[in-house]
């Protein structure tokens, strides 16, 4: 087993399910101390239980917080440092999809709701974690963007706009903080079967969402959904010291979808 995270402190937002949970499980197996953040306290407890199944000795801090609230973000950073003394790696992952609709029918409130979590939340995380990492003189950050952040996604104006913003923040902050020993990159997942994606399919057809899913992945060269653990493997690598020279860039994990068109 790899032990790339022995003695390392890893902070993960959106840790209660999906990509955050899968990444926590992989990183815990490799020796990390975990600070897990989510809006849903029950989901955090579920993740903790799963982590302890694969890493019984793992040190885990659970923090319930809304990433769209800057004060809550500042608090989760401060709690992590108070508990563990540092932050080696940060998976800035929490996000929502929002509703699906034509741009002309997208209400401002709905648009701002998605942006407040997906873009503002990532910005707040960077703002407060990067201060810690700059003062430490080391650190690694992975932001969750999307294939929707590097190409268009129909009927999802808020989501696409927010994820394009995450790409911009990643490139800009990577340029700024590389000189301080901090590497910052983003992942751009495609169709990964998470609770959020399942919810998206159910918005289209609640009764036949599995069939919709089959149609959804048909244009993908690999003809299937990705698995959360496949993303977890990539995140673990990118947060490790092995990926320190990867900076200010975006890495798709989408079965080739973003390169087909």
Automatic annotation (TrEMBL):
Enumerate the PANTHER family for this protein.
Answer: DEHYDROGENASES, SHORT CHAIN, ESTRADIOL 17-BETA-DEHYDROGENASE 8-RELATED
Q: Give the UniProt keywords, A-Z.
A: NAD, Oxidoreductase
Q: Does the keyword Oxidoreductase apply?
A: yes
Q: Which Pfam families match?
A: adh_short_C2
Q: Which named protein is this? A: SDR family oxidoreductase
Q: Which InterPro entries match?
A: KR_dom, NAD(P)-bd_dom_sf, SDR_fam
Annotated Ketoreductase domain ranges read 8-212
What GO molecular function annotations does the UniProt record carry, in alphabetical order?
Answer: oxidoreductase activity
The family note in this entry says: Belongs to the short-chain dehydrogenases/reductases (SDR) family.
One record GO biological process: bile acid metabolic process
Asked if ATP-binding is a keyword of the record, the answer is: no
